[in-house]
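Amino Acid Chain and Its Fold in Token Form
===========================================
Scope: a single protein chain, as residues and as a discrete description of its fold.
Amino acid sequence: labelled as such and written in the usual single-letter residue code.
Position: the record begins directly beneath this header, with no further notes in between.
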Amino acid sequence: MHGSELKDRQHSTPEEDPRPKLWPRVLGSLAIVGLMVGMMIGRLTQPEPIELQQVEVLPGALVVWFSAEPKLHGEWVDGTLGLLFDARAKPQHGQFQLNGKALNWRVRGTDGGLLLTVVAARALRGDWAGAPQDGRWRLQVNLQEQ
């Protein structure tokens, strides 16, 4: 058994290799390439965001057109309608008549999505229903005074 003393320039521990260690660099490069490829695949498979295309006013109803079917949550709060969509659009607003009385509608973006509100001087009630039509999604909101 050799001791730690030098005997003809030989000792029990080998000298350190002066070449650079490439294995950590190879693993780091593979991790970066894998991350980039994963991000590219994720971007390609991500669905297109749903867009609000148009708001139409009909007698006693409001028709909202989307590029595809959005997730929808609607509530009546104190006679005011609030519909929250998982979509995006530019802010819009307008006014229309219901039985000779003015109603105001407004579309605006929020943290939860796109919010459509319909407000009148008197409490409102009604219903909404959506269906695909001409390659788009049509949501009709029927309104009545309470």
User: Anything to note?
Assistant: Residues 52-145 form one domain. The longest strand covers residues 101-110.
